[in-house]
Amino acid sequence: MKTKFTWVVSVLGLVPMLGCGADDYYGGDDGWDDGGTTWECYSANDCEPGQYCNEFHYCVWPDTPPADADADADTDDDWLPPEVEYEFGTPASGFRYVYVALQNLDTVARVDSESLDVVTVPVGDRPDQLVTVQGQDVAVLLNRGSDSVSILRTVDGEDEVVTLSTPPLMNRLVVSPGGSTALAYFELDDPRADEVGSFQDMAVIDLTEGDERVVHVSVGFRPRDVVFTADERVALVITEDGISIIDLREADEGFVARTVPVSLDPLTEGDPAEVVISSDGSHAFARWDGLAAVRAVDLEAGSLVDTPLPGVPTDIDLTSDGALLIAAVRDTSQVAIMDVPDGIGDVDALRIIDCAPLVVGSAVLTPDDGQIIAFTNATTQEAVVLIDLETGETRIALLRKGVRAVAMSPDGRTALVLHNRTPGEPSPTDDFEEQVDKRPGFSLLELDTLFVKLQLTEAEPGPFTFFPDSTSAYVIVADRSESLMQVAHIDLESFLVGTIDVGSPPVEIGNVPGTDRVYVSQDHPMGRLSFIDVRSGESRTVTGFELNSQIVE
User: Fold this and answer.
1) SS3 53
2) In 3D, which of 350, 405, 520, 319 has the Cα closest to residue 45?
3) pTM of this structure
């Protein structure tokens, strides 16, 4: 199964693939901890060969091959750990303001990114989950103590709050990109879930100004993700039972969503490792660990069709228009491209792109859907391959460290490559390549020229944001134990990298496009936000909004 880690953002020598001998795989005598936790990690290539990165972010020696190991591996030597997919979320910033939920005060702090004025707005009891509408000064939040949702709008500096009841114990909130609808549900995996809510109740929240309302609906068992169609008329809820379809124009109190199964035999197949849905809501596609095929689900007819692939896919993605499905097949170092819907079920219509000798287990689409960047984070392979989706042309970009994750700038010209760090601290006795491998860092890749710039850092690169005009990017680089509290500023034209110091450990970063600023939320007992002017580089800080006061530094 492809593990997912979520970060909050606004989101070269080629080395051979590391093999895992049988003795190593089952935990040889290497001087590390006795088969337990050994090294903090984000993906398998942070670990020793033969280890994998568990759900607690530590490298471990498995006693037996994990259940999601490649099923068609002939020997232990062929086994590779799972790919890790990073989901880059959206911070809680509006067009001009940043909103912060203050649980103990039952309020939201609204911070003006230009003047640094702070206003506290009363909402429900113990506000928790807070999501903003992209490009608007609108915040939606769940109130844990009062089982309600508050919709906060700011217009010309004035705030309006509408609070409505929801089913009890909702702890997940998703807002449609255009801000027309929000959906709330209960997720048991939430570490803050101290009570158990309903596994099939969902609140559909109409955010239309003046006509706000909450409708209670029923969906499949344990909703785990929500996808809105491009026109925002339909919400598709991914559950253990399949895809629950909610027509947002017709849903009323007590609505039971039609749920389309994705499994041919749920008793033997189990849950899919990944599900993606087309933007028009016509099809869903799923993959299973151990199944050398991708399954298409017609969400209108309910039909299920498998398209055989050269091996087990480890990642699937759809272009934004839903016209192409891309599947990375790590076992064969290939990428399969399927036309949708005409190519569904037709193995002869697949376009197969060979990427050998590189291993490709994950893929990231460029914003224009013209190319993909394919890579693996199961090994320390120091390269990525760019594939033109129209011509099938491949180009290899050589790096100097292994890949943890890849993110694209909004204009699609630059990729930010977050690197892994191999176990151990760098030592003066290490050779140059070993020292580089053991240090954290990131690279900037210019897609047109394949120019790569490596930037080593003093701590692991953390949450980051690209400014919407693609002129700059900002990456949190912090280490509490070393009192390192910085933000790396990247000029995406020159690839020059500078650092900006902040006063407390930075934890979150995002854009405030209305004032050309980036905010940095920090861990501080009284609340602290810094705002960086992307044009001048000037940084200003407000502290104390947690105590309903304002201190400008």
Assistant:
1) strand
2) 405
3) 0.87
